[in-house]
Amino acid sequence: MIELSNMQIKIQTFGIAREICGDAQISMLVPESTTAGQLKQLLTEQYPRLGALASFLLAVNEEYAEPHIQLQANDEIAVIPPVSGG
Amino acid sequence: MFSQTELTRYACQIALPGFGEAAQQRLKNGRVLVVGAGGLGCPVAQYLVAAGVGVVTIADFDVVSAGNLHRQILYTPDDVGRLKAQMAAERLGRQNPHIVVQAFLEKLVPENVMSLFADHDLIVDCTDNFEARYLINDAAVLCGKPVVYGAIYQYEGQVALWNAQNEDGSRSPHYRDLFPAVDAAQVPNCSEGGIIPALAGIIGCIQANEAIKYLVGGAHSLAGRLLVFDAATMQSRTFKIGAVSHTVVTQLPQTEQTPTITAGQLAAAPDTYILVDVRTGAERAAFHLGGLHIPLPELAERWLEIPIQQPVLFYCASGKRSAAAVGLWRQLRPDVPAFSLKDGLNMPQTLLKPFLAE
Known about the structure:
The complex is a heterodimer.
Chain A lengths: L5 E8 L1 H7 L3 E7 L4 H11 L1 H5 L4 E4 L2 E2 L12 E4 L6
Parallel strand pairs in A: 1-5
Antiparallel strand pairs in A: 1-2, 3-4, 3-5
Chain B lengths: L3 H6 L1 H4 L5 H10 L1 E5 L5 H11 L3 E5 L24 H12 L4 E5 L5 H9 L3 E4 L4 H14 L3 E7 L2 E7 L12 H4 L11 H4 L3 H20 L8 E6 L4 E6 L19 E2 L1 H6 L5 E4 L3 H6 L5 E2 L2 H7 L9 E4 L4 H13 L5 E4 L7 H8 L2
Parallel strand pairs in B: 1-2, 1-4, 2-3, 4-5, 9-13, 10-11, 10-12, 12-13
Antiparallel strand pairs in B: 5-6, 6-7, 7-8
Helix pairs in contact in B: 4-5, 4-10, 6-7
């Protein structure tokens, strides 16, 4: 059995996600092989109100992250929620 | 062909490298629909009109309220209670007499959106609610029109160009590629979350700039990208969202009509309803109509506090949050009738008096 170590990742939050997560930048400890799709799931478990939005955008290195993308420790990760005001 | 007056008016943009009279003519041939004449719609319409877009249609069914004036800079205190689109079209028509500025005063609904879009080349989404944004997006995808999207919240704004045609005939991503669905009750709007006024101008001007670039055929549009701007830190980031849309739209969203009660109906029979104020604590502290206070984001957890022996009447500042509350209530207690106070607390003082006297 292969032991997977954890990695610390930093996530920038925008809009209402900043209020939900409590800060403009949050840190999370995730297994090294975590994908963007899995991170989305982890985020909605840790912050149920993110899940309640029904959808939010996860970007990695300033690019929309397909769910299968594998994250690296120094990736720039961003959580961008929908915004309605005008 | 342009008159001498027009050439003088547009001289400084015609002089731009790569612009010239040809680009000015493309602007004049352009027909743009600006949906929403609020914080974003004011600067968008102002610049499109000033720059000489041939037809600018301003669509809004709402009236000016005093709380709009800090960021909706086309209006004066005398306009409070008047139709925004009508005021904006009148004023901007004088700003540029060489083009057509017109108002569309109905609410955009599935029944009128397709024919309205058919008359325009480009749609600018300056609305303030998700229901309108999804309707605009889906209608635009169905009829193949690009949308310059803009949205603001507190210090932060987003801009993108949706559904633009790529060189191979495919279309750039649209709103549903990023946000397939949203629970509107979970995202505060301007009156709940607040808005820094000049941000509306900044984001609106970026939208106007994208619209002009699109019409004149300029490169480097925001198609396939989402711009996020933070007015507090002055950081702007552009996220790549892919070149091609993968989300198919087959029909317009079906809007459910929210049952409403007018202020007059309420004043005539105030004891008929259980009143529930769904605004924030700060808004309630300023003044209220009585009844229970459950802010909209807490309704899903606290709805059991509401007595069910009488019909429930939700109210907020404008009628938007209370409509969302009715939508939620219908899922929780479909057997107990619920209504939204039409136009919220935007009611004549004479109707408010009986409540304030309490």
